[in-house]
Amino acid sequence: MLTAAQLKAARALVGMEQRALAEASGVSLPTIQRMEASTGTVRGVIESLMKVMAALEAAGVEFINEGATSAGGGRGVRLRKRSE
To answer: pTM of the full predicted structure?
Structure first.
């Protein structure tokens, strides 16, 4: 599951504008904008989401599942669980 915040953060990490992500993924700019405007988990056509994630991965992003470790060892950001 990918959240809108993760999508925006991933794009920011590689310095990619929304338009460039749309071109790299083959997904329309309005679709990228809708994905990033979502609250919580990104909803939409799974094929489009997979294309967007693949384009970001090709640009150097590593998506890390909750509780998983990073295999790549590169720089990155992870949101830690907040204590309540």
So the answer is: 0.83
